[in-house]
Design a protein that fits this description.
AAA+_ATPase, 9 helices, OB fold (Dihydrolipoamide Acetyltransferase, E2P), binds adenosine-5'-triphosphate, nucleotide-binding, Mo/tungstate-bd_C_term_dom, ATP-binding
Amino acid sequence: MPAVPAVPAAPDKKPGSLIERPTDDMPAPRSADPAGSADAADAADSAGPAEPAAIGITGLTVRYGAVTALDSLDLHVARGETVALLGPSGSGKSTALKAVAGFLRPTAGRVTLAGRDVTHEPPNKRGIGVVVQNYALFPHMRVADNVAFGLRARRVPRAEVARQVAEALDMVGMAAYGRRYPRELSGGQQQRVAIARALAIRPPVLLLDEPLSALDAALRADLLGELQQLRADLPDVAIMYVTHDQTEALALADRIAVMRDARLVDLDVTGRLYRRPPSPFTAAFLGAANLLPARVVSDCAADAAGTQARVGNLTVAVDPSRAFRADDDALLVARPHTLTVAAPDAPGVLRARLTGTQWRGATYRLTCLLDDPVGTEVRCDVSSLDGVPSLGAAIGIALPDAPCVLVPTEAGT
Ligand SMILES: Nc1ncnc2c1ncn2[C@@H]1O[C@H](COP(=O)(O)OP(=O)(O)OP(=O)(O)O)[C@@H](O)[C@H]1O
């Protein structure tokens, strides 16, 4: 049985625009480049006094008996901003999205949309567009009727419905498919229709829950590109995008909220979170970084230049993500593609032993064990096997020129 799509109340429409603006008092913060600036983060962190957040989540908690599915989530999404909720299975991402959509009632906390408290409103009063992973189209309705569903429910005049349906289908490249039934479409096409249906009601807020996960890899990549285009076409829409796939989060999100065990663990602008992860969990989850055991040489402040740590057989310059004391245990964040291979006796390299190689097409993944007391595993991606010794042989691993980020150990977070 397909889920019932969100049917909006009748908000003020802005003629000629696909999207309603909650308020025009202040331009929405939006970074042109998610990989980019801290400025965007600072702008996005506060929606500003003149404009309440498009999505406001405060202390949101959802419990099922003894299971806490979501624990005190605080998150604000500005108009025009995309925030990805990223985390492993069971971390509470979908629960957060369902609570914002109104599909479940939180145990505690508040949800506001453009400042309006909707915590106790049913889904069809919230005016939100929702897309879930398995399309959830009505099988007995043609594509155009599926897309028109929310508009008809809000009694939009017939001619206007036709125009808005055509516009929404056009946005997702499905203008020619209005008379088909969902069963006559591929999975990717069905998901495009589901997106058109969510957009047809011109929502100021769009919630996407793993919208690409039911598609095969090639289609996923295509549709990801189309979502990026759609994002650009909808500059005023606030988007919450639930995914466990870091590629989607990196490609689409202005900011990423990393979830773990029902809690928000880290939240920052996409580029900064990737480059300077504050915790070992985020470093490993976002970019599959190696976490090399390190010991801080002397007291240092966060970001302090000149900080050093001992790693394996080396003492290296590091970029501390927070203040550390001398002799603190910490972890050095080293992404596999930033490491290079050298002779084991070359100066300034980590000594290790090669234990595996795996051809991945564009790169080879080398697995090595560091010459340290615990034999830490290090993954290293190289473009060729030139200079790589045979399995079991000693190998040198060179760190990147720029200091690697130093994060606390799990125990220290
Ligand atoms: N109806 C329910 N009854 C009991 N527990 C639930 C219910 N729905 C979710 N949970 C539990 O709440 C936790 C969070 O679930 P949620 O679906 O939000 O995770 P998720 O991060 O979206 O995972 P996935 O990526 O697998 O969808 C999980 O431990 C899950 O088992």
